Amino acid sequence: MEERWSPLLPPDDPKSAPREYAVRTKIWRWKGGSWHFANVRAKQSALIKRRFGSSARGWGSIRVRLKIGDTEWTTSLFPAKKTKTYLFMIKASVRKTEDVGAGDTVKVLIHIV
């Protein structure tokens, strides 16, 4: 996606920063549970944190709208300290509709809300 820059706003100002990011990531399952997650790559996570970290909510979360295949839902990105990335949960209904699960690599469109 092409980034736009306005001479009137700093390039990392959340008002002018690109709000959509395409991510290829692998789905993983929380040990001992049925919750499924995926991580945003480190470079993209650092960019999102730099641009939108100041607007983070509880636990450093950032509200997003995600899309896998034809399925969209609203959730949050959460910082994962160990990996210095953001992660997000993939709901069971999304996994079922899109026929994906742990170990699958998916393309996710992230839109910062």
Structure description:
This protein is about 15% helix and about 40% strand. With about 110 residues, it is α+β, with helices and mostly antiparallel strands. The protein has a six-stranded antiparallel barrel. Strand 3 (about 60-70) and strand 4 form a beta hairpin. The chain is globular and about 35 Å long. Mean pLDDT is about 90; it is low at about 1-10.
Poorly predicted spans = 1-9
How many extended strands? 6
Total of helices: 2
Q: How much strand content do the residues show? A: 35-45%
What is the helix fraction of residues, given as a range? 10-25%
Write out the strand line-up for the largest beta sheet, numbering strands in chain order: 1-2-5-4-3-6
